[in-house]
Specification:
It comes from Aphanomyces astaci. This protein is mostly helical and about 80 residues long. The chain has helices spanning about 20-25, 35-65, 75-80. It has a domain at about 30-80.
Length: about 80
């Protein structure tokens, strides 16, 4: 039911035993910076939702100003470009 607890074949040595030149590519402080990363992602997501909501409101406002004969063309064009 469980996988064998063996070392993977691709892992030849532990990170701490690696060559110093290769260690520069590893972020060994990543576990300590996890909270900051999550908070930044939350703020970015909030900004994205805020901008998307504002742009949708502008699209609706412009679509309502279109003449009845061509109503929806601006909205269709904007959503086609955005997607």
């Amino acid at each position: 039911m469980f996988a064998a607890a063996e070392k993977p074949s691709f892992m030849r040595y532990a990170i701490g035993n690696g060559v110093q030149v290769e260690l520069q590519y590893f972020n060994l402080a990543a576990p300590d910076n996890g909270t900051l990363f999550i908070l930044l992602c939350i703020f970015i997501a909030f900004g994205y939702v805020l901008a998307a909501s504002a742009s949708d409101a502008m699209v609706v406002e412009y679509a309502q100003r279109e003449p009845v004969a061509i109503r929806g063309r601006i909205q269709t064009a904007i959503y086609t470009v955005r997607t």
